[in-house]
Amino acid sequence: MRFLCSWSGGKDSCYAFYKATKLGFEPTVLLNVMNEFEDRSRSHGIPKDILQAQAEALGLPIHFFSSTWTDYEVKYIENLKKITQSYPITHAVFGDIDIESHRAWEEKVSAAAELEAILPLWQGHRKQLVLEMIDAGIEAIIVSCNQELGPDYLGRTITSDLVEELENKGIDACGENGEFHTLVVNAPFFKHKIDVDIESKAVSSNYNFANLNLKK
């Protein structure tokens, strides 16, 4: 019942981690995929030192590997197999909610490493999951977003008021379609808060990113 958590650094993977522990699974190691330059995460654009700080706050090791989108699947499976040789894990936890193609892929790569994929948030109501996460004490900020939201939303904390604001703009409360991505900075199961600030903001491929700095 020991698990690896596919860790983006954002709210969904963090809440899936939390829910998995409530189901009786034991967290053992985190996994994050970096971009080909190895300076920030492939999915959320979060710097490596901040992801490492999250792992330290959780008291867990984190395994990194870098990849382009082209060889992502091959490298993901390779690294899952490496991790199973170092840690006695039986399951892999993912934070997807209702996109069938994502679940199919996660089950495929997990099975290739003889792991069982667990999706604790699966088929949950998107807005309700976010509100539950907030009630659980998970604090997350927006670190990237599309142009419909714009750069002013970078750095904003996910609150029930912000959820209503997003929905009034026609934006999915969970950002499940890629409208925005988040960084968890605190949770009741963190040993300490992750203190970050936004040094600057950038636009890449019509998407806004916060350039984050870890305060030490």
Protein described:
The protein has 216 residues and is an alpha/beta fold. It has 2 domains: 2-118, HUPs (Rossmann fold, 3-Layer(aba) Sandwich), CATH 3.40.50; 127-214, Alpha-Beta Complex (putative n-type atp pyrophosphatase, domain 2), CATH 3.90.1490.10. 32% of the residues lie in helices and 26% in strands. The chain is built from 6 helices and 9 strands, in the order βαβαβαβαβαβαβββ. The chain has helices spanning 11-22, 48-58, 72-86, 100-112, 126-135, 160-168, and strands at residues 2-6, 26-34, 62-66, 91-93, 116-118, 139-146, 180-186, 196-204, 207-214. The strands form 2 sheets. Strands 3-2-1-4-5 form a 5-stranded parallel beta sheet, sandwiched between helices. Strands 7-6-9-8 form a 4-stranded antiparallel beta sheet, covered by helices on one side. Strand 2, helix 2 (48-58) and strand 3 (62-66) form a beta-alpha-beta unit. It starts with a strand and ends with a strand. The mean pLDDT is 95.
Q: Beta-strand percentage?
A: 25-35%
Order of helices and strands: EHEHEHEHEHEHEEE
User: Percent of residues in helical segments?
Assistant: 25-40%
Q: Strands of the largest sheet, in order across it?
A: 3-2-1-4-5
How far is the first residue's CA from the last residue's CA?
A: 35 Å
Largest sheet, in brief, is: 5 strands, parallel
Query: Can you tell me the number of structural domains?
Result: 2
- Uncertain segments: none
| CATH topology descriptor of the largest domain | Rossmann fold
Mean pLDDT: 95
CATH homologous superfamily annotation of the largest domain: HUPs
How large is the radius of gyration?
Answer: 16 Å
Structural category is: alpha/beta
* Helical segment count: 6
Question: What is the top-level CATH class of the largest domain?
Answer: Alpha Beta
